[in-house]
């Protein structure tokens, strides 16, 4: 049975559509229009109590029991376990995968997300102070990622993992948070390599704003 993806066209939603495409898991799309407050509807709060997309419902779960999951990091871990894919076999790389997944959820998401917000604020003083703070932090995070990718092809190490899908969801919006990847050559090489993958392209192209059954 298909997994239900409850999402919208945002970096956090795209992480999951990319992962589902890469894993070849069948899924249906259930748009949650966060610009119209649909994330506060009781049926959605049943599966995502923090009123944020994405969330998934797997009618069969992993052991035959219906399972819903919210928080994109938890969803990626669930999908990796379900599919047996993009979860490094080597212990060192598996923990590196978790480290970079947590790095994304805790930092490289919230920080560029603040840039996306404050860049549109009209009051110049509010905008300047907040942008200075969050741009600086966003650029620092790109530097951290660049140094990691100078040593390894992927965030976990030698293999592509769910940590890459998590980080890619936000790197996909680098133009919106005004980061030029030319300044981060290792991130750029990694980014271009991932974006050339057909399943990644499908994950970014799929319409997350229109309900869809299993494709
Ligand atoms: N930590 C959460 C963040 C999810 C998140 O911030 N989602 C945004 C869209 S990208 C959202 O649903 N916002 C709706 C709201 O704030 O009410 C995750 O990784 O899943």
Query: Helical content, roughly?
Result: 40-55%
Strands of the largest sheet, in order across it?
2-1-3-4
- Report mean pLDDT, rounded to a whole number: 97
Radius of gyration: 17 Å
Q: Describe the sheet with the most strands.
A: 4 strands, mixed
Count of alpha/pi helices: 9
List the secondary-structure elements in sequence, H or E. Answer: EHEHEEHHHHHHH
* Basic shape: globular
Number of strands: 4
| SS-derived structural category | alpha+beta
Distance between the termini: 12 Å
The bound ligands are: glutathione
Strand content: 5-15%
**Uncertain runs:** none
What would your notes on this structure say?
The protein is of the alpha+beta class. It is built from nine helices and four strands. It has helices spanning 11-23, 42-47, 72-83, 91-106, 110-118, 124-151, 162-171, 185-195, 198-205, and strands spanning 3-7, 27-31, 55-58, 67-70. The protein has a four-stranded mixed sheet with strand order 2-1-3-4, with helices on one face. The longest helix is centred in the middle third of the chain and has 28 residues, at 124-151. The mean pLDDT is 97. The structure holds glutathione. Glutathione is lined by residues 10-12, 34, 39, 51-54, 71-73, 105. Glutathione binds next to helix 1 and helix 3.
């Amino acid at each position: 049975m298909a997994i239900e993806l409850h999402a919208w066209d945002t970096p956090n939603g795209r992480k999951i559509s990319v992962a589902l495409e890469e894993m070849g898991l069948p899924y249906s799309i259930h748009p949650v229009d966060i610009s119209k407050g649909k994330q506060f509807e009781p049926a959605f709060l049943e599966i995502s109590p923090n009123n944020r997309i994405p969330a998934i419902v797997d009618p069969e779960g992993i052991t035959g029991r219906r399972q819903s999951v919210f928080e994109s990091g938890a969803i990626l871990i669930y999908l990796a376990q379900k599919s047996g894919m993009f979860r490094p076999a080597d212990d060192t790389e598996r923990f590196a995968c978790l480290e970079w997944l947590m790095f994304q959820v805790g930092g490289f998401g919230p920080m560029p997300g603040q840039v996306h917000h404050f860049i549109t604020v009209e009051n110049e003083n509010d905008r300047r102070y907040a942008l200075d703070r969050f741009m600086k932090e966003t650029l620092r995070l790109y530097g951290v990622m660049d140094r990691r990718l100078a040593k390894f092809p992927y965030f976990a190490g030698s293999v592509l993992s769910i940590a890459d899908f998590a980080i890619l969801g936000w790197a996909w919006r680098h133009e919106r948070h005004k980061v030029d990847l030319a300044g981060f050559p290792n991130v750029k090489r990694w980014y271009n390599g991932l974006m050339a993958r057909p399943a990644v392209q499908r994950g970014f192209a799929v319409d997350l704003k229109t309900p869809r059954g299993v494709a």
